[in-house]
Amino acid sequence: MCQTENPVGEEFCRLCHARLPAGPPSDIPSDEVSEEVEAGLMPDWLSRLRQEVSGEPSSSPPPSRPKSGDELEWLGEMPQVVGEDKGPPTGEVPEWVGEAPSGSGSEEPKVPEWLARIRAKAHDSGQESGIFERPVIPGEEPESDRQGIRAAPSAPAFQAARPGEQPEPSESLGLPDWLLTARPDEAPPSSSTTAEQERPAWLEGVSDITDKDLPHVPALVFDMDAPPEEPQPDIDLALISSQVPDWIGDARPAEPPDRPQLAPATLPSWLEAMRPVDTFRSVIEFEATEDQAVESAGPLAGLRGVLLAEPVVAMPRAPSGASTRLDVNERQYAQAELLHRLIEEEQREVRPRAAARARPGLLRWIVGGALLLAAGMPALLGVPSFALPAFAPRDLASLVALVDALPTDTPALVVFDYEAGGTGEMEAVAGPLLSHLMERGAMIATLSTRPGGSVLAERLMATVGAAHNYVRGEDFVHLGYLPGGPAAVQLFAQSPSSAVPVGFLEDESLGSVWESPVLQGVQRLSDFSLLAVITSGSDDARVWIEQAEPQLDGKPLVAVVSAGSEPLVRPYYESAEPKIEGVLSGLTSATAYEQRLGRHGLAHSRWSSYGLGLLVVEVLIALGAMGGVTALALRPRRS
Amino acid sequence: MRAGVQLVWAGIAIAFGLIVLQGYFFDLTLLQGLRTMILQWAVVLAAAALLLGVVNLLAVHLSKVAAQEKGWAYSALLIGALLITLVVGLFFGEESPLFLSVFQYIQQPVESSLAGLLAISLTLGAVRLLSRQRNLRTYVFLVTTFIVLLGTGPWLIGSDGELHQLMGEARAWLSQVWAAGAARGLLLGVALGATATGLRVLLGADRPYGD
Amino acid sequence: MPVDIDPVLLETIGTLLAAALTVMVLSYIIGDNAFFRVAAYLFVGVAGGFAATVAWHEVLQPRLIAPLLDLDAAQLGGGNLLTGVLIPLGLIVLLGLRLLPGARRLGGLPVAILVGVGAAAVVGGAITGTIVPQTLAAMESPLAAAPLTGETGFERLVNVMIVLVGTVGTLAYFGFGVRRGEEDKPRVGWRPFRTPLGIVSLPWPLFPFLGEIFISVAFGVMFAGALSASLLYLTERLQFLAAAIQTLLGGLIPLA
Predict the structure, then answer these.
(1) Helices in chain C by DSSP H: which ranges?
(2) A432 is a domain residue
(3) How far apart are CA A155 and CA A494, in angstroms?
(4) ipTM of this model?
């Protein structure tokens, strides 16, 4: 079936044309049902069933019902819902449904007046007045059947509206008082089931569903043709439970005597074949529209078949016993604190940690102290004294010969390209060369590509020249500072006078340093007898070799370099066409040079300190190497 | 506009560079004077660039003092020393004894002392070398250093002996043959790299003079 | 401006100051401290001021300012006023605009001149002074005697071959390219080779390995040279301190 809602009384579905299941008796005129619904009457069957609230549940099959109540067997077979108040045994038809109640010891239930009117009307018309009509029980008073019905606790009062009466307040929802106050244990005593029960008119047409065992719920049947129904405030919805209580027996409405018997339609075979097959039959059977309660409150007021909110949803319930407080144990609390702290730290700007001040280790103390002692002891105490070098380097001889062969009528150009920090070595190494030049009487012109070079030149020339009585301006001049790196050296090589127009500590009486007698006749670089570059780094030597050597026109270029730069200068020396004619490097060469000259200069003065310092360094390096190798040997081998 | 200016500067750099470069290979009298003039401009600009560098140094430390950054007192000392030296040099002259004394008694001692500290650092590095890294290169490096040191300085005893002379010869052989071979390769590599870099500038591929 | 200062007083005060600064710098041996920092910052300031003064007095003032003040005494270096003074002065002004954010672009001209001229000087010098001569030197005949050292014979042959192998090996080690896909691989590895003696592990490629050895030797020599030079620097400072103490104490401590 397509589950489409269809008007009450329809036999076939209007959408899929399937045969609609037989519901509650459809012979009840809808107008009568509407009237009764509008009047807010309690369903008759419900009112009867309420009387049977009291009673013990029984698992025994429902007893055989009197004939009049056979149609009501389905009511007794309804499954018992959990939590429901115990009512009459399953299958047992309340006596007020099927037979007249026994009057022994039991108080006759009092039938309300409105119910009596309905019954009377129905009796007169020969039909059941509606779903709210209670089967007529001989001797039963209209208002005497409500005592056994107990209303749900805390259910709002639901008073059935009496004809002509104003609707009950909303809180009562229009349900009759008996429905609200009825208790299951007050249900009237069960009567004999053998009494004949008159089948109510509203149960006519209800098929025997003993074997079906299907629960029924009110269906929401929306009558499209009928006007929207007004809410019925006098209907006590609190008593209309979504759970069918047990005391609903198997009362069955009586067959409407005048129900027109419709001949079943005969469908052609081909049409029958086209009939949708009920592959799925809803477990839930939809009740007839007239059997359905009408909602009287809320936004769904006036609609039939509304799922009852009470007492499951709408009725306030006491809070469950479970506590709403979050139980946190110590570990969880600690983890939550940790997470909170992590998030706080992320948001907080972290200051860069200040670099820890490096503290010198013991090894540094030992090395520093040993070197200070080694370098200072000979200078302060004069001991120990190291022997002067007995063997001169192979290159010294060629250098000495070169200087010996220099012409003295032209000045030698000496470039002081070392920093003030290199004076300790360079003054000691370059001193013998300058001394040799002075000894030969060669005039000297100094130049520097560093700002402090001129001052250093003056310092060394004054120191060495004092022994040779060299006078500035007469024997040597300072050409000053030449900025610009390789381009400046190229300019000087190309045109010396345009590169350095003024000198340093020049004679003010002269217009220009180039007018000095020292530089007499010097126009080009090749006019100098010698170009000696004194530098602590190899780069300066390379620059002068690359830029100036081609302009020397065969004049010698001598490199006086630090011991560490000698390897990088050596390739220019060791070639078939050497760029450098002489190399002087290291204190050993300088000391040997001084020995050759027979003069004791700065090299000699630093020889012992130099020797002791080197000895200490060699011992320390040897110890360090042995320690490293020992550590390697003692390291546990990895498996 | 910006690209146009860049192209103009690139054109000038290339033109001036080519004029200077041709002087290494050709001897053109016509360009000789122009080449000398360009080189003179370069010398003057180099001196001006040095001045600008000092001005920049002053500005950096002035900002540190103004912002009261950490160590601003040292920056203030630097600024004071620089300005005093400038004043002394500009007013008394670079050849005045006072100005030369500034170099003699402040710059030279401090710079030499800083260089002297290098002896401790280098020795410390050599002592710890094998403890930190042990491979063929390290062993070769350390053995070479030891032999050169032994052959460089005097011995406490036996300085005039044959062993000392042998060590001297070994040191010379290592320094003047083995190291020279590697140094030649290094020099060639450096020269090739410098040539490639310079040619990139002369061809306009590199423009380090942009904004 | 000539100023008469007692040279003895100047030398005494200067020696005291130099000795104090030497001790302050050498105190770095015990760790970084305020004395060391004071000496270092003082040195930087003095060096900057000294360099600026020398550049002004020896280059800018005589070339640019003096000619404008006294044309007769101008040292123009063979040029004229326009090319020797005005244009360089203009270029310097443009160079100074580099310090101003708004006019920085105008300073591109003098920088372009400096860069172009410097590049040309480097290229020309490298080609004519190093690449060609050193390449030719590496191809020298081992049989010819060394012109300066006088080596001949077997010694010369061995030395030339060693230098040649060192040169080629070093250039091979500093390869001017990285094989694609092998950036993470070490340059030199050990590979097994079948020899008459059996399978022997040899370094491969060979020349980069040899270059590595030669470079290690060269660095060892340079390290030893730098270490001995630094010893001399330290020696000079200690000798100065001794001399200063002697001067101040009036010759109580004899010097070697």
Answers:
(1) 7-26, 34-55, 66-69, 81, 87-96, 108-126, 132-138, 153-173, 206-249
(2) yes
(3) 119
(4) 0.93
Q: How many domains does chain A have?
A: 3
- Name chain A contacts of C133, Cβ cutoff 8 Å: 572, 575, 577, 579
Domain with A56 in it: 1-315
Question: DSSP letter at A526?
Answer: G
Pick C9 or A436 by higher pLDDT: A436
Question: Which H/E stretch holds residue A195?
Answer: none
Average of per-residue pLDDT values in chain B: 92
C-alpha–C-alpha distance, residues B72 and A168, integer Å = 91
**Any chain A CB within 8 A of the CB of C116?**
no
DSSP state letters, B143-161: HHHHHHHHHHS--SS-TTS
Structure tokens at B37: 């003039």
With a cut of 60, say whether residue A189 has pLDDT above it: no
Beta-ladder partners of A304: A294
Please answer yes or no on whether A586 and B134 come within 8 Å at the CB atom.
no
* Cα dihedral A544→A435→A428→A417 (10° resolution): -20
Q: How many CB pairs under 8 A join A and C?
A: 209
- C-alpha triplet A27, A31, A35: angle, nearest 5°: 120
Same domain, A304 and A278: yes
| Same-domain check for residues A616 and A564 | no
Three-class SS of residue A376? helix
Contact list in C for residue B78 (CB cut-off 8 A) is: 41-42, 44-45, 48
For A228, left (φ over 0), alpha (ψ -120 to 50), or beta? beta
Residues A437 and A378 placed together within one structural domain of the fold: no
The residues, ordered by sequence, that sit 6+ positions from A461 with a Cβ below 8 Å of its Cβ are A434, A444, A446, A470, A472, A476
Structure pTM? 0.68
| Residue located via tokens 């423009």 | B207
Task: Identify the top-confidence range among A266-275, B10-19, B199-208.
Answer: B10-19
Q: Do A234 and A367 fall within a single domain? A: no
Does A611 lie in the same domain as A591? no
Report the residue of chain B nearest C159, measured CA to CA: B177
CA neighbor of A395 nearest in space, from A558, A169, A626, A620: A558
CB nearest to B40's CB, from A389, A498, A628: A498
Please give the mean pLDDT across all residues of chain A: 73
pLDDT of residue A162: 46
Task: Tell me if A256 sits within 8 A of A127, measured CB to CB.
Answer: yes
Q: Are residues A254 and A216 in the same domain?
A: yes
Are residues A284 and A433 located together in one domain of the fold?
no
Q: Which residue of B has its CA nearest to C168?
A: B185
Q: How far is C180 from chain A (nearest CA, A)?
A: 33
Token duo for residue C171: 């250039």
d(CA C132, CA B197): 18
pLDDT band of residue A190 (cuts 50, 70, 90) is very low
Give the residue extent of every domain in chain C.
143-256
| Residue A349 lies inside a defined structural domain of this protein | no
CA dihedral A180, A186, A190, A195 (to 10 degrees): -50
Any idea where the domains of chain B sit in the sequence? 133-211
| Final residue belonging to a domain, choices A254, A285, A315 | A315
Residues A505 and A620 in one domain: no
Task: Find, among A432, A465, A407, A445, the residue nearest to A560 by Cα.
Answer: A432
Classify residue A576 by burial, with Cβ atoms within 10 Å: 0-12, 13-18, 19+.
Answer: middle
For residue A117, tell me if it sits in a domain.
yes
> What are phi and psi for residue C43, nearest 5 degrees?
-60, -45
Q: Are A294 and A232 in contact (CB under 8 A)?
A: yes
pLDDT greater than 70 at residue A253: no
